[in-house]
Specification:
Blueprint lengths: L3 E3 L25 E4 L4 E3 L10 E5 L9 E6 L5 E6 L8 E5 L5 H7 L1 E5 L6 E4 L15 E4 L7 H8 L10 H16 L4 H13 L8 E3 L5 E3 L11 H7 L4 H17 L7 E2 L1 H17 L2 H18 E2 L2 E7 L4 E5 L2 H20 L8 H19 L8 E2 L9 E2 H16 L6 H14 L11 E2 L7 H7 L2 E2 L2 H13 L5
Antiparallel strand pairs: 1-10, 2-9, 3-8, 4-7, 4-10, 5-6, 5-8, 11-12, 13-15, 14-15, 15-16, 17-18, 19-20
Helix pairs in contact: 2-14, 3-4, 3-14, 7-8, 7-9, 8-9, 8-10, 9-10, 9-11, 11-12, 11-14
Length: about 475
């Protein structure tokens, strides 16, 4: 692999020893340092080859955009700035370093501090401080020994604890990428399956499950919201008898059978992928056609709620009677992937079972029509804009990966023309230029937090995300052995 990492000494000079904020927890109880306006100093020993980035990983949720200043530890020469814009736990941020500073970094260390006295950023600390934090998520200096960007490195980092994400749709995208890798790449199957088990171990014990929410709140045995459902497909594949499966079944069947058959609530594209698809997986597990019928109903509901003419919106907000985020490309990916994955399970269903053919055909027709529309919005570089119809919003990689993967799944179902295979190949080639040499995917629009709203998505800020990496690996694996 054409890169290397240098971890600092574990001390973190000046790192706050105060407890975490009340009611907050880090993922998996991993140790953390607080960066405030006084700062902490990271030091290294030995020798350094040329390095190009300092990286650190957010430990507690941020609902603002603090700026971290990086300086040489003694002379206070500023070497970089990093806007940790609405960072979520387990998200890594890079700081580009000027060339030729390795000797000074060894001599003085690097000081990290926030630029405002009323802001703080909690970051994961190295493993020596306590539990086993992956090197890729601990603060470190990064230096590539070559410029090659390689999907094999993306597979390797995805097949590791460094790709862990917050419980729910973020981690679900990683698990789905790993699952496709295990299915399609025989040479990676053993590593991908081991990684899935390792990831599940971080959330699911023998009889319980625990995690921290996107707001860094610790939670036990609670499927708290609709977006958590994308954890379920992998749990069903690998641990179908886990009590969490039955808990999810009871929650969803009771809740959605009664409530999600009208538009008297908010509806979002995520539900196609994080509710309808998991419920179809439950239907397959239980061989229950009623569950699969409900999954189809959920997709049809989302069609009615989220489309106005030919425009697909991310959300319908019931109280405001308002549609928001037109053709937001990551939402388009959720919509298409959800339809395609449910139809995969429909296609596997025993012939003669009492599935409603009119509902199936309506879902198929919608997938075909939406793919045709979205394909017409593709950029010349084979990506999509963050808001597909708004060129000013700029290219976005995670949604592009998800959309291209949906094209391939739809093609397998007879819902997309053969030309979509070449389109998906071109998208994967375009995504390769956003990879780091150790396999991280850049160009991802930030997590869509309500406090930031649509302006953050249109602002043009991009980040790195293991979630996006999972979507890209899913696409890469789906392209195996295709003409």
């Amino acid at each position: 692999m054409s890169f290397f990492r240098y971890l600092p000494d574990a001390s973190g000079e000046g790192a706050s020893r105060c407890p975490l904020p009340e009611g907050k927890a880090t993922p998996f109880g991993w140790p953390a340092w607080r960066i405030d306006s006084h700062g902490i100093v990271l030091r290294w020993r030995g020798t350094l080859q040329p390095v190009e980035e300092l990286r650190f990983t957010v430990a507690l949720d941020l609902r603002e955009a603090p700026v971290v200043e990086v300086l040489l530890g003694e002379c206070r020469y500023r070497v970089g700035l990093c806007e940790v814009i609405y960072g979520y736990p387990l998200q890594t941020f890079p700081v580009n370093l000027p060339e030729g500073l390795e000797h000074a970094i060894l001599k003085e260390g690097l000081l990290l501090r926030t630029m405002s006295p009323d802001t703080e950023v909690w970051i994961l600390a190295p493993a020596e401080c306590g539990k086993d934090v992956p090197e890729m998520l601990a603060p470190h200096l990064f230096g590539p020994s070559g410029t090659k960007r390689d999907w094999e490195n993306a597979y390797a980092s995805l097949c590791s604890p460094a790709s862990l994400q917050i419980f729910g749709w973020l981690e679900g995208c990683v698990l789905e990428g790993l699952n496709e890798l295990a299915l399609r790449r025989e040479d990676w199957r053993e590593r991908a399956e081991a990684a899935i088990q390792l990831h599940l171990d971080h959330f699911f014990s023998e009889k319980h499950f625990s995690y921290v929410t996107p707001r860094s709140e610790p939670t036990v045995d609670n499927w708290r919201n609709n977006e958590h459902g994308l954890m379920l497909p992998s749990l069903i594949r690998y641990r179908p008898e886990h009590p969490a499966v039955s808990a999810y079944e009871s929650l969803l069947y009771g809740h959605y059978r009664k409530q999600l058959v009208t538009l008297e609530q908010n509806v979002s594209c995520e539900g196609c992928y994080t509710v309808a698809y998991p419920f179809a997986m439950l239907a397959r597990l239980k061989q229950n056609p009623d569950f699969l019928d409900l999954a189809l109903d959920l997709l049809l509901l989302h069609q009615r709620a989220l489309k106005v003419g030919e425009t697909l919106f991310l959300q319908y907000r019931h109280e405001e009677r308002k549609h928001v985020y037109p053709f937001w490309i990551r939402g388009v990916a959720w919509y298409l992937l959800g339809h395609a994955r449910v139809l995969q399970i429909v296609a596997e269903w025993p012939q003669g079972s009492a599935l409603n053919s009119a509902k199936v055909e309506a879902v198929r027709s919608e997938l075909q029509g939406m793919i045709q529309k979205v394909a017409s919005l593709q950029r010349n570089d084979f990506l999509w804009n963050c808001f597909a119809e708004d060129a000013a919003s700029g290219a976005e990689t995670s949604g592009a990966a998800g959309v291209a993967a949906a094209f391939l799944l739809a093609g397998d179902l007879g819902c997309a023309p053969d030309s979509m295979v070449e389109s998906a190949k071109q998208t994967l080639r375009a995504l390769e230029s956003y990879l780091t040499s150790d396999g991280l995917l850049g160009g991802v629009v930030q997590s869509n937090k309500i406090e930031a709203g649509e302006p953050l998505q249109r602002y043009g800020a991009r980040c790195r995300s293991q979630m996006g990496q999972g979507l890209a690996v899913q696409l890469s694996a789906l392209l195996v052995r295709r003409a």
